[in-house]
Design a protein that fits this description.
The protein is α/β, with parallel strands linked by helices. The protein has three domains: 204 residues, Vaccinia Virus protein VP39 (Rossmann fold), CATH 3.40.50; 203 residues, FAD/NAD(P)-binding domain, CATH 3.50.50; 96 residues, D-Amino Acid Oxidase, Chain A, domain 2. Helix content is 30%, strand content 25%. The strands form six sheets. Strands 16, 17, 18, 25, 26, 27, 28, 29 and 30 form a nine-stranded mixed beta sheet that branches. An eight-stranded mixed beta sheet has the order 6-7-5-4-8-9-11-10, with helices on both faces. Strands 20-13-12-24-32-31 form a six-stranded mixed beta sheet. α4 packs antiparallel against α5, α9 packs parallel to α17 and α10 packs across α17. It is globular and about 80 Å long.
């Protein structure tokens, strides 16, 4: 059974591929699947087979050469295996596509190879070595979900780990050419079934092509039933025939029948985009758009890295719910995304530290909660693992009386410096000022600034935390100010310090230089950004609860852990009522309340009308205290929507982040009341 389009599979690690290395016809060693008793490729002619079956049959050389669309050309594949097909496609794109073109690769995999096996398999192709190195370096942990990899400035790969049909049903995006690959139908019958072909059809662009090595009857029947026209063409090597074809008119996406309000707006020109707000949310959107060739004007009254993004240190961490929910799925995806993003952006780790995060269990209640979480989420130990007090002590470098959960891929980041780096991206122009008015103009938007200057752009992204409500188009979006204050302490030489970020009720970070940072206070409905001695005292109390005896050890080492001697910084975060960010197109709230008013009387009467949005207006806000795990992923989501690309999240998770979700919830709650 495969998941329904709006149902998500269990949040878990995946069984990896089990390989043997056997000699092929050329006498060379090639990977062989134990589970399917089949080879991944022939080392002798595997690349030639890929070029014949998938590249030539989909006419990719000539299609790449003639590609002039602002959006990327999208290739979808059912089973990445060793990645050979994707690397050959990338090489073909580089050889034929014009300089301004972009390529987006989407591939699935239920049994991902281990990184070492991947490297060994791809070593067979020395001329692909540089490309293979980029794939191997970013190869994700075997966790079900979507993993975005940046292969180079023009080429992106989304690796969807899990059952192929399930992954394609959850894909939010459309494909221009399909590689219908995978082990032969006789070896892998679970993959080749009608639901697979239906999912391919539903995720196809008009005129999308496909090619496959097999001519099996189940494949021909399934393709035809889904709407594809197929024909037999010469096969490769000893295979006399194979299939190729196209789909002229893909079926209507039935996924939106239950949630028409989340129907994405029609793509609009995006030559020039203004981003309002230069914190982490805004600068990550600006950099994501600039990477796609969009000219971005980044506007902030205080400049990059102000507000809640202005701290010298911040924790890249998540706290996942014991029972699976969409918020936890989104944040785990965000954690894994941010880690790969930081490695690609700053491989020398000058802006971040891959030190890991310890989430302690100082109470029996928290220990039970963590145990339930682990039982419900069998994730790889490379992502999260339980540790006892002794192991926690070893990892933290400080004596700890209890254990907890260790997140090896989490860590510490320098948000202020990161924002400045992103704001300096090629294609981003930073402007220090305030937007006084935001109004539709012709086919785009006109921004009036505080010096009376005006700026006309195609589209706008609002990323101004709680100040997002200052714009009338976003005034109805529920946002809550949350005051947070960090404390910092100068450490004398030899003073003890945590080697990992350590979290419980608060957190303490490894020192940045000789400065220890800990905190942070959490005060909802408070928008005062002045530091307070009372908050320093609260942070010290929380530090003692998290690391018992540590403040006394600091004092013994010559530090001064007292509220009246601490330095720090206070800022106001923005939060939503359900504690998930808002990321996506900004709804026309009045129109939604009118169009979907019937939901307040009967939630089962779903109008067919798609949700109306302010054309070309987007928002990324309400990242709260976990923006390092959410803002970069939300930036990719928004940039992908604007540039008409497949999304880096499953469709239900993109809907979970949609800024209009609260309108629908409020209408339905009225009916229940």
């Amino acid at each position: 059974m495969t998941a329904a389009p709006d149902t998500l599979p269990p949040l878990a690690g995946l069984e990896g591929a089990r390989l043997d290395w056997r000699q092929d016809a050329s006498g060379e060693s090639a990977p062989h699947s134990r589970a399917f008793d089949d080879v991944y490729f022939s080392r002798h002619d595997g690349r030639a087979e890929t070029e014949h079956v998938f590249l030539a049959a989909n006419r990719l050389p000539e299609r790449f050469a003639s590609w002039r669309e602002p959006r990327p050309f999208v290739v979808g594949e059912t089973g990445i295996g060793t990645g050979l097909n994707m690397l050959c496609t990338w090489a073909c794109f580089d050889a034929h596509a014009p300089a301004g073109a972009r390529l987006h690769l989407v591939s699935t995999e239920k049994f991902p190879l281990a990184r070492d096996d991947l490297a060994r398999a791809l070593a067979a192709w020395p001329d692909l070595a540089e490309r293979a190195a980029m794939l191997i370096e970013q190869w994700p942990e075997p966790v079900a979900g979507v993993h975005r990899l940046w292969l180079d400035a023009r080429v992106t790969l989304d690796l969807h780990l899990g059952d192929t049909t399930e992954r394609l049903q959850l894909l939010d995006g459309a494909v221009d050419a399909w590689f219908l690959d995978g082990f032969a139908p006789s070896k892998n019958p679970e993959m080749w079934h009608p639901e697979l072909f239906a999912a391919m059809a539903a995720r196809s662009r008009p005129g999308a092509t496909f090619a496959t090595f097999t001519c099996a009857g189940v494949v021909k029947r399934g393709l035809k039933a889904a709407g594809f026209a197929w024909r037999k063409v010469p096969g490769f090597g000893r295979k006399r025939e194979m299939l190729a074809g196209e789909i002229d008119t893909p079926p209507v996406d039935e996924r939106r029948q239950a949630t028409p309000w989340f129907t994405p707006p029609t793509p609009l020109p995006a030559r020039r985009v203004a981003v309002i707000g230069a914190g982490l949310a805004g600068t990550s959107v600006a950099a994501a758009l600039a990477r796609r060739g969009v000219a971005v004007t980044l506007i902030d009254r205080e400049g990059p890295g102000a507000g809640a993004s202005g701290n010298a240190q911040g924790a890249l961490y998540v706290k996942l719910a014991a029972e699976t929910n969409r918020q936890s799925r989104t944040y785990l995806a965000g954690l894994l995304h941010t880690r790969r993003w930081l490695e690609a952006l700053d491989p020398d780790a000058t802006l971040w530290s891959p030190c890991g995060v310890l989430q302690l269990a100082p109470t029996e209640r928290e220990a039970r909660r963590q145990a339930r979480f682990l039982a419900n989420h069998p994730l790889p130990e490379s992502v999260v693992r339980p540790v006892d007090a002794a192991e926690a002590t070893r990892l933290a470098g400080l004596a700890l009386p209890y254990g907890g959960l260790d997140y090896p891929l989490a860590g510490a980041v320098r948000p202020d410096a990161l924002c400045h780096r992103l704001a300096a991206s090629d294609g981003v122009s930073a402007y220090r000022g305030e937007v006084r008015e935001l109004a539709p103009h012709d086919t785009g938007w006109r921004l009036t600034l505080d010096d009376d200057a005006t700026l006309e752009v195609d589209q706008v992204v609002i990323a101004a935390a709680t100040a997002s409500n200052d714009f009338p188009q976003a005034a109805a979006l529920p946002l809550q100010p949350v005051r947070g204050q960090i404390s910092s302490l100068a450490l004398p030489s030899g003073a003890p310090a945590p080697a990992r970020v350590v979290c419980a009720g608060g957190y303490a970070m490894p020192p940045l230089g000789d400065t220890l940072t800990f905190g942070a206070s959490f005060v909802p409905h408070d928008a005062d950004a002045a530091t307070r001695e009372a908050d320093h005292a609260t942070n010290l109390d929380e530090l003692e609860r998290t690391l018992p005896g540590y403040p006394a050890a600091l004092a013994a080492a010559g530090a001064e852990p007292y509220a009246d001697t601490l330095k720090g910084r206070a800022a106001v975060r923005a939060a939503s009522p359900d504690k998930s960010p808002y990321a996506g197109p900004l709804p026309d709230t009045d129109a939604w309340r009118h169009d979907y008013a019937v939901l307040a009387k009967d939630a089962t009467r779903v109008p067919e009308r798609p949700g109306r949005h302010h054309p070309g207006l987007w928002i990324s806000t309400a990242h709260g205290s976990r923006g390092l795990a959410s803002a970069p992923l939300c930036a990719e989501l928004i940039a992908s929507r604007i540039c008409d690309e497949p999304l880096p999240l499953e469709a239900p998770l993109a809907d979970h982040l949609h800024p209009g979700r609260r309108v629908i919830r409020e209408l339905i709650q009225r009916q229940r009341a």
